[in-house]
């Protein structure tokens, strides 16, 4: 066994960016998040006065403007939580699989949750929010295990390319199954199709509150996995030599990511590409140390999803575009760029 002091000395310092630079980016990101939250409660199909915003924040809904702001507040909170959860889950999945293309959507986790929820609704008539979330967790976990098993077959084990291909194929297959299950049920088909796009419209505090315990556990487990992900980034053999239990570290971090994906998908629907785009941008800002990358990914994801929601309200006035459409328009070209730039290398 390696003594504790030797383990500390043997563990390489993560290369990256100066702490002062990271602190500056942290302040910039927090300021941007505050501005976007303010814009989210201000901008919509109806223009509102500043006095209405202040009154609505104090709980008043006497005027139409105040009522409009009151509806935007939980919507903003849901976008913040969902964006943070999906981006953090994407960063964790990239660390667990050492795959630059890992993302809850690309690896089939979101569609696994979606398929499970649709089966629960159509075949078992589930209606409660907690039933939705637990069903989504079961579907996400099953999809993650299935994709990792398929990607591990053959020579070389679970390579980034095989995981990406297995995840893409699984997502397509699950999406087809969802359509096949919903097609005969014209009474609920419209609602499920709208939910499948992915959005935060119609958010209420009653819809948000059931997901909070699951998100809290998911955030805690994922953020506490940062040091383990730093060890895994060195390679399995070196991480094991430093005393890390590789299988346990991977399973623990993946559990946190699955909780975040499942709870978010159950409420918002499968929102894609967020977990791919944000972690890559954050690496450019704060480096590869997961102790910084994970919280920055959460903050960056919250910023991006709130911004996407605001843009969706503006571009199609008086109608709206769901955030799932906006993130897909951003994420698809970014996905192609990552494939060309990284050439599907391991992280």
TrEMBL record:
<dbReference type="InterPro" id="IPR037294">
    <property type="entry name" value="ABC_BtuC-like"/>
</dbReference>
<dbReference type="GO" id="GO:0033214">
    <property type="term" value="P:siderophore-iron import into cell"/>
</dbReference>
<feature type="transmembrane region" description="Helical">
    <location>
        <begin position="323"/>
        <end position="340"/>
    </location>
</feature>
<feature type="transmembrane region" description="Helical">
    <location>
        <begin position="247"/>
        <end position="272"/>
    </location>
</feature>
<keyword id="KW-1133">Transmembrane helix</keyword>
<keyword id="KW-0812">Transmembrane</keyword>
<keyword id="KW-0472">Membrane</keyword>
<dbReference type="Pfam" id="PF01032">
    <property type="entry name" value="FecCD"/>
</dbReference>
<keyword id="KW-1003">Cell membrane</keyword>
<dbReference type="GO" id="GO:0005886">
    <property type="term" value="C:plasma membrane"/>
</dbReference>
<feature type="transmembrane region" description="Helical">
    <location>
        <begin position="105"/>
        <end position="124"/>
    </location>
</feature>
<protein>
    <submittedName>
        <fullName>Iron ABC transporter permease</fullName>
    </submittedName>
</protein>
<keyword id="KW-0813">Transport</keyword>
<dbReference type="InterPro" id="IPR000522">
    <property type="entry name" value="ABC_transptr_permease_BtuC"/>
</dbReference>
<feature type="transmembrane region" description="Helical">
    <location>
        <begin position="130"/>
        <end position="151"/>
    </location>
</feature>
<comment type="similarity">
    <text>Belongs to the binding-protein-dependent transport system permease family. FecCD subfamily.</text>
</comment>
<feature type="transmembrane region" description="Helical">
    <location>
        <begin position="75"/>
        <end position="93"/>
    </location>
</feature>
<feature type="transmembrane region" description="Helical">
    <location>
        <begin position="208"/>
        <end position="226"/>
    </location>
</feature>
<feature type="transmembrane region" description="Helical">
    <location>
        <begin position="163"/>
        <end position="183"/>
    </location>
</feature>
<feature type="transmembrane region" description="Helical">
    <location>
        <begin position="292"/>
        <end position="311"/>
    </location>
</feature>
<dbReference type="GO" id="GO:0022857">
    <property type="term" value="F:transmembrane transporter activity"/>
</dbReference>
């Amino acid at each position: 066994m390696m003594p504790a002091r030797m383990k500390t000395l043997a563990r390489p310092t993560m290369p990256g960016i100066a702490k002062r630079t990271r602190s500056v980016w942290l302040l910039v990101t927090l300021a941007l998040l505050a501005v976007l939250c303010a814009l989210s409660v201000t901008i919509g199909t109806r223009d509102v006065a500043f006095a209405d915003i202040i009154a609505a924040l104090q709980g008043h809904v006497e005027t139409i403007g105040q009522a409009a702001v009151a509806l935007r507040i939980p919507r903003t909170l849901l976008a913040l939580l969902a964006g943070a959860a999906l981006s953090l889950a994407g960063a964790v999945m990239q660390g667990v699989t050492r795959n630059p293309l890992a993302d809850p959507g690309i690896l089939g986790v979101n569609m696994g949750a979606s398929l499970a929820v649709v089966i629960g609704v159509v075949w078992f008539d589930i209606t409660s929010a907690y039933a939705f979330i637990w069903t989504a967790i079961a579907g996400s976990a099953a999809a993650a295990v299935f994709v990792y098993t398929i990607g591990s077959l053959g020579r070389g084990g679970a390579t980034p390319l095989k995981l990406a291909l297995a995840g893409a194929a699984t997502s397509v297959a699950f999406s087809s199954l969802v359509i096949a299950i919903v097609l005969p049920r014209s009474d609920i088909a419209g609602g499920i199709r709208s939910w499948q796009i992915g959005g935060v419209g119609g958010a209420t505090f009653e819809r948000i509150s059931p997901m909070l315990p699951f998100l809290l556990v998911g955030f805690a487990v994922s953020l506490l996995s940062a040091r383990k992900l730093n060890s895994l980034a060195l390679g399995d053999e070196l991480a094991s030599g430093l005393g890390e239990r590789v299988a346990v570290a991977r399973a623990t971090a993946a559990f946190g990511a699955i909780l975040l994906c499942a709870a978010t998908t159950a409420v918002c629907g499968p929102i894609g590409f967020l977990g791919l785009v944000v972690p890559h941008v954050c690496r450019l800002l704060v480096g590869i140390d997961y102790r910084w990358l994970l919280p920055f990914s959460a903050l960056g994801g919250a910023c991006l999803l709130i911004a996407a929601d605001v843009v969706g309200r503006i571009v199609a006035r008086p109608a709206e575009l769901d955030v799932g459409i906006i993130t897909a328009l951003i994420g698809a070209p970014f996905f192609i760029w990552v494939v060309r730039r990284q050439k599907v290398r391991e992280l």
